[in-house]
Design goal:
45 residues; mainly beta; 3-stranded antiparallel β-sheet; 1 helix; 3 strands; 38% strand; globular
Length: 45
């Protein structure tokens, strides 16, 4: 999927604020967004 320049964007720095993982709540469900040892992002439930 190619990012669309028209869509709002947040940097991972803004989301993570120096942490390696955060919890994101969506429709009453909790997800964990974390940075891997290789610097990639993974979203899990």
């Amino acid at each position: 999927m190619k990012p669309d320049a028209q869509l709002p964007a947040l940097s991972s720095r803004q989301l993570l604020q120096g942490q390696r993982q955060i919890v994101i709540e969506h429709r009453g469900e909790r997800y964990i967004l974390r940075v891997t040892s290789q610097g990639k992002l993974i979203l899990t439930k």
